[in-house]
Amino acid sequence: xxxxLYFRKxxxxxxxxxxxxxxxxxxxxxxxxxxxxDDIDSDTxxxxxVVTPADGTNSAIGSAYTHPGAGNPLTLSIANGAINxxxxxxxxxxxxTQDGDSGYTLESGDTVLVTLQQGLETSFMYPASSLIGIEAxxxxxxxxxxxxxxxxxxxxxxxxxxxxxxxxxIVNGMNAIINGNNHGGVITVIDGSNGELVLAKELNGLGIxxxxxxxxxxx
Amino acid sequence: xxxxxxxxxxxxxxxANKDAVMFPRSRFLGATSTAATTLEFFFEDREGAGPGNDxxxxxxxxxxxxxxxxxxxxxxxxxxNNTNNFTVIKDLNDDLPSNEGPISASGISEISAMTITTG
Lengths: 219, 119
What we know:
The complex is a heterodimer.
Chain A: E1 4-11, E2 13-18, E3 46-52, E4 74-75, E5 83-87, E6 90-93, E7 111-116, E8 123-127, E9 131-138, E10 141-147, E11 155-161, H1 167-179, E12 186-193, E13 198-199, E14 210-214
Parallel strand pairs in A: 1-12
Antiparallel strand pairs in A: 1-8, 2-7, 3-4, 3-7, 5-6, 9-10, 10-11, 11-14, 12-13
Chain B: E1 5-9, E2 20-24, E3 28-35, E4 38-44, E5 53-60, H1 65-76, E6 87-91, E7 111-117
Parallel strand pairs in B: 1-6
Antiparallel strand pairs in B: 1-2, 3-4, 4-5, 5-7
């Protein structure tokens, strides 16, 4: 019987970007207590974007919107083109010229509340037999290396953030998960669904607070 | 232990390229979400001539990635020694003759559509 290792990122999670200047790029998404070094690269991971304007005079907004007035929230339409790019945990919005109906030209002092959801590469599963190594990659970080989903002789990596000096405990825990008799079928190693952290019991008490998944390539 | 064969069929007649596919469980590489409503299963390329993969991208009930993975693992690990059947992960073929139905079972209920990609 094969054992399957399942991971799911910390979702939903929210991040508030306060615009220090009139730029369309939001601040780098960091949710230290939930996402750690998680890398947001796809707008499939964005559930909603809510702008709260600093004042009520901004006329450079898409035709699909009615200005809500200073301090009131306005939900942007992701489906109709509010997002220009999403890469390296930075979301850049279309301004009202780039997307006439769903763009929004941000002003200094505006805030944008980003809510993250399950999307591209936020949930993944590997056969335990695809695990080919566990490496201490930095203080408080351990990386699991798997045979690539693309089967291209490279590796996919799963970086786990945890308390310092816990590398050996992570390795021992993974060994117990895979070789113990306590599990069959899918083992949920790390699950951040519904905003709560659920761990395989073998990894409890290690201060796990981040998950970064880097498969070999896009598809 | 006997090999377990995993069967996927898209909505069609099973008479065209990529209407249906079957993989040995031992060639399963893993799965990942690609959106809130999609999950992609990866297998070693059937041609076996070199690096590469085949995959089945499934449309699923929103947010049910783990449920689908749980069911997939249960099916993939199922003991088929005493049957003459293979394991239906999902059979969406609904256009068979009236005296036929999907092959033995319709599979994982949270899967509603799929795209099969082979090398």
